[in-house]
Queue: 3 jobs
Job 1
Amino acid sequence: MIDSTAQLHTSTGDDAAERKRVVFASSLGTVFEWYDFYLYATLAPFFAALFFPPGNATAALLASFATYAAGFLVRPFGALVFGRIGDLVGRKYTFLVTILVMGISTALVGMMPTYASIGMISPIALVILRLAQGLALGGEYGGAATYVAEHAPNEKRGLHTSWIQTTATLGFFLSLIVIGGCRRIFDEAAFKEWGWRVPFLVSLILLAVSVYIRLKLNESPLFLKMKSEGKTSKAPLKESFGNWANLKIVLLALFGAAAGQGVVWYTGQFYALFFLTGTLKIDWQTAYNILTVALALGTGLFVFFGWLSDKIGRKKIMMAGCILAALTYFPIFRAMTHYGNPALETFANNTTIQVTATDCQMHLFPNPKTKYSDCDRVQDFLAKRSLSFETIDAPAGAAPVTKLNDIEIKGWDEKALTTALATLGYPAKANPDDVNTPMLILLVFIQVVYVTMVYGPIAAFLVELFPTRIRYTSMSLPYHIGNGWFGGMLPLTATAMVAASGNIYAGLWYPVVVAGLTAVLGLLFIRETKDHQLQVV
């Protein structure tokens, strides 16, 4: 199962210049693909109301995150489809196809008519495009990681594949730069109306560059030799998942490494940004600057921890990242509130909010027939303002009663609720003078460090777990379930947990629990892989 003979050497594999070209070309194309994928998450708060039925902002945001999550949910299926093709036909051909699918579907998002123009066809088409993006990304990562690893020397596999690990963050970083540039060019109204489409259309330029670069690559020498010897797998799906010995390793890779890595990645970057802008009401420029600086400071650590994993091993670095994240997320995010919007923190400490009501529901997929109860409207009002509250069950049919300290408001009365908050001193936005930018950069940077610890070594770790004939298929599935299902579901799950509980920190329980379980399983059952060598079969 684990390759243990001396690594295959070929004229291209031994050539340092060729290896650099392989790493650069694979990484650059993957950066562009991640850029495409993460545009949606960053821009969802802007276009959520454009593609879904109006009436409830929280429901529209949840629906946009649910559509965002759909792209992640389908990623494992992309891993199966394209992983099989990659093990049968070749690495290079497969990730040429994946980048074409990704680039075209992303550009089409930028051309989508709104709900006001075509009704329910709009959100349905948006879901279809997200599914296409997810399928493409499901085939991309395994191909790029496998391709680079099969060119790398044994003693530097962690270092070489760590460049692939930088691509997700660099793609996110690039998306922030392009979006930020567009927001500076267009005024706020123009950006919300149509300017948000421009970053999606830019993907056509990136697609052309990516295809040009990848057409110039050679196939993996290991795959070529395996194919020439007639040793390619005839049924990679069956060999990967129909064989218990290999399936057991797939499951260990998923629950003992990839799941925790996925939630740590998405918490430290996406959820941190959403918390700054959506929860703490910090203006977008400041929030983007905070995240951009933190990412710039931390991106080199992907390569550092990849290099370090070649020296001391992959497992201990990844598990340490999961443990640190699980232990510190709650204090880190509370500190973000303290340094980002101290007025909100003070208001929360001085104000007790209770909603006594019945018929409260979460609406993940609103449609024209969705009806919102008075309780739904009250909870939406409070949630949009990042207010923690307690919901108490009332007798069936009773009108909701909202109590803010000693102020009591019966039924759904937006004007009365707004007046009550103003009376109590609620801060509608973070005061720019109160935002401690250096401390917020530090707090986000700490989360980025966790990301680099769990993500930097994982490509080499997964590649080394499986034999060449089924490597693309076997490694892609646990990675994309861990990242696509456990990680990709984080924005939706965390937002839903906050909405359901009325506590702005409740969503953190999801990454804390998953990262903690991964650390336990990884420490107990995962074995070190850094000294394993790659061969043809």
Job 2
Amino acid sequence: MKRIMRKIALYTLSFITLSFSMTGCKDYLTEIEPGTTLLEDFYTSTAAAVQNVTGCYVPLMWEYNNTYCSEWFIGDVASDDALKGGGSTTDMADAYDIENWRTTDQNTLLLNFYRAQYQGIGRCNLALEYIGKMEIGTDAEFTQSMKNRLLGEVHFLRAYYYFRLLRVFAGVPMPLKVLRSSDDWGMSRASVDAMFTQILADLEFAQTNLPKKSEYAEADLGRATQGAAEAMLLKVNLYMASPYWQKQGLTKSVADCYKDAKAWGDSVIVSGEYSLCPNYEDNFTIAGENGRESVFEIQYAEVAWGDYGEGFGFTAGSFTQILTRSRNSEVGGGWGFNHPTQNLYDEFEAGDPRRETAILVPNSDLLPGYQAQSDETYLGNNMLNNKYGMYRDPADVGGGYGKWKLHASRGPLNNKQIRYADVLLMYAEACLGAGDAGTAKTYIDQVRARVGLPEISVADDAALRHERRCELAMEGHRWFDLVRWEGVNGTGLKAHMDAYKATETADAQHHIQEFVAGKHEIFPIPQEEMQLNSTPMTQNPGY
């Protein structure tokens, strides 16, 4: 109960609706109506400032508005790691389009994802303005250190939201202040270079001002930390070093990107704040949340209330668990989305225990009472995401495998955005880019040793990319890795995706359209948002 209450306290927004409207409103009245509370009047205590910052985290949680929009529908399903799944090809048609290169600017999954990030950005801009104005000594708790920490959290989150937008849509409008009227919401798309520059600036501010993980009180675990900012600086620099993003007009050189990435990775490692869990599977349990391997994760809590049809922000629980659980009522009664591919299954080495953690192949031996059902299979594939869909803490669930005590479809399991294993592999990649294969091998081997695998013979791109795919399988990273690498082992992304298509079932191949290089690496700006913008926006090529 203590854990649940802590997570609810951290992520329930109760003070004010901080919506970021695309249409806004005119300032028609020049006089304040009697009884009106000014926004400035809210920022009179540390508690209010903390509450404001807490609200900035909330849109990270959002997975549903008028359709489901979890980021893994892009990160897994667009890649060679997963098929959409569900009851049929028409079940969540927007995800089907993403899976099969049929996406248009009318895709509502992308629209909801786009809007959720801007809700977060709007909250961040408001917090930066008003908390920035608060005077030290507003109350006894509002010290310079507290103010710096709160602003550091918000800079981290704004960078995080913009990074999520950038890697899906490339350059987007980039407001850095509160938009107070519809006149303010008229701006062209920022360049990719300008967005990366701003993201780095926000993260560097966060890194300077945030506490270390160990310096937070237990009740504040889950908030952004210095280590999380450093891990993101490592990650963003790796993206900037990549062939695909360099082609988008970046001014920072590849060599400087790798050098900086390596330096930020050094900072995380030497801090001593993180280590690998001895048991890999522990990362995907309630008991393992915010633990020794956790660098940053999206917090969820199990609650008793439902919210069908309510839209953004009406639950503290995650939909990912029910979205990805088996459709069989004997083993979870979920909706069966995000099916791992045979291609991913075959990537794992013999004896690698991470395969069974990531992928569940349903049968009666593994799951007593399971009986194969025709609706479990999607385009010839019946494998399930075992990391988030099939829950691992029997003491914390009731009524069957993967069902929650308080609500059948609102799961409490946090989403692990950055694990220390991910940091080690990104660091190894930075070392390879900087010409230090010996150090890269050390950290690749460290990740492999945790699961009992032998050392690699040589550290190169192929070994690194294989390890990332297996270590991070079904965690939403794969598509974004493929884009920045533009394929695997020196092949172009189109060649890689064409080769993957050839490994799929005949049923699946029938639905997959031609991958178009120069188009399908990113997704279209939603048409609704282009129409709401009073300044004309260019669409991504090919859409």
Job 3
Amino acid sequence: MSLSIPTTTQVVVVGAGPVGAFLACRLAAFGLDIVVCDQRRHPPARSMAIGIMPSTLQKFAELGLADDLVAAGVRIRKAVVADSRQELGGLDFSILPPPFDFILSLPQSVLVAKLWGRLENLPGTVFAPGFEALAFDSRQGRVEVELREIGSGKGLRVAGQCLAICDGAHGELGRSLGGRVSKRDYGCSFVMGDAPDNTEWGSDAHLFFTPDGSLESFPLPGRLRRWVALAPDARKSGGKADADDAADRALLVRRIEEMARVGVSDRDFLESSRFTPRRRLRGRFVRGRVALAGDAAHLMSPIGGQGMNVGLADAWRLGAELRALSMASPAAREVCLRTYERDRKRAFRRASRKAAAGMWLGTRTGRLASALRSRLLAWVLLRDPLKKPLTRLFAMLREPSLRTRGRLVDPERKRRLNLRLFTVVAPRYDLITRLLSLGRDRVWKDRLIGMLPDLEAPVCLDLACGTGDLTVRLGQRYPQGKVAGIDLTPAMIERARQRFAGSGNQLSFEVGDLARTGRPDGSADIVVGGYALRNAGDLDEALAEIFRLLKPGGHAAFLDFSKPPGLVGRLVHYPLLKAWGGFWGLLLHGRPSVYGYIADSLAAYPDRKQLAGRLRAAGFRLEKSQSLFGGMLSLILLSKS
């Protein structure tokens, strides 16, 4: 066998399409050992799905993958909608929160190729292309998977703590989980083709709705354009190319000329296919330590670009649950995957309903139906109050829930809440820190930097750096040093990069979790954080990470809101902080919970005495502590002996 595959690992991932490969990257970021196999020896050549939504790009950014993908794709910031006579309106994706104020057009084949390139270099990961999974056996707290090398026929068994099946809609392995499969065929078909772009539309998408059906057009990298047209009959091809490919190309050419008034030859198409939208939902996503994700678990209409993004969201969530499962007690392990199944079924149903509604709208034919549709679309697209929610809906961005109940105790739920909340506040974060502190925030941050020791050229980390206030101060304090700002929220990092674009190579900013930086042991002389520890998903995990990162003799300093130790202090402290934050949340965002969250987060945070004990337990020496703003905030300086 040309590849050395371990016989035991923590997680086995079957299928390295976009979902399986993304899941593997997520698991590797958690430090888990994994084996990933796929029947194919090379990434797929066909482009298939192309749309990557902003919420998915945020997830890629957290793994350090977004920049490469965005550079390879086309940013769609506008979708123009027209009927047979006139333009009806459009969607402007540039109103979405930065940095991903667009939908990325990137062929699935390119996405998979880039993920495979990442898999080949991930620590703790064995990537086995050209191996198929034949069966699995789950028993005695582990899962044994039978693999066979394509071509040679040689087989082996790999035992893992968990098995993730991501081998697509036609994979056989997931069927053994059992459960009823909900099915629906929509009874329509579409013809799709990619050709050189000879329009003048640039990076805009165009959607046409006429009495004869619909036509969609999306830009692709390499000055190509994808065209998708409703076919006039209901021939079904099971997702494969129709037998009469020449007729389908001729139909597509005719639709483009009639609806878009663009001249295209059937010889221009680099590839074309016919597909029939279907809906499939497996009754079970989970059995014991085995879980399904992506098309192996569910299938929806590709119209609207929901399917691949829902599958990638499955992978993101499953990765977190598998990590939790690897660390949980035996009694808690089943709960992890049951919660995954419940939540991802709910997400699929929500997305599939939107996809089906969009497809229904596009498949109405005839003059009366087309006239009514045009009136409806024009009414919706030309009214400002409806544009923003419709744009967010199309981009798969729900209005983020900022309710804190139950989310500040569970580390993963708190982490997701923080990501949503700080994405909302990023555009006004600098302003609100000044307002909430009555202009004292800058003074406090200067004091924090002033507490740090004199060093010649230290390596410094600013954890939960926000928009970079402390990061740039570190650079000014240590002009010969190297300073990196790390934050969970891509929108914060984007603003930090914009603010300090001219600072040279001394400062860098990256998306990351303060408790899981992935940096080497003992790689930092200085670690700081402004409002960081209170927002950590798991405080002890964050402290352990900071201790690991610091060199012996290194220092850490933190500024944060403080929890008073006595009941009387809390009775005054909490209502005042809740009211003050709620006032600015209502004024700036129309939502008191945006900054009222600060008081809620303190309820689950240790008081000053308890925090000092946690710091000592983590191995730190408390060098200095200072109360600020009547005890509402505190500065602490720590050292690693």
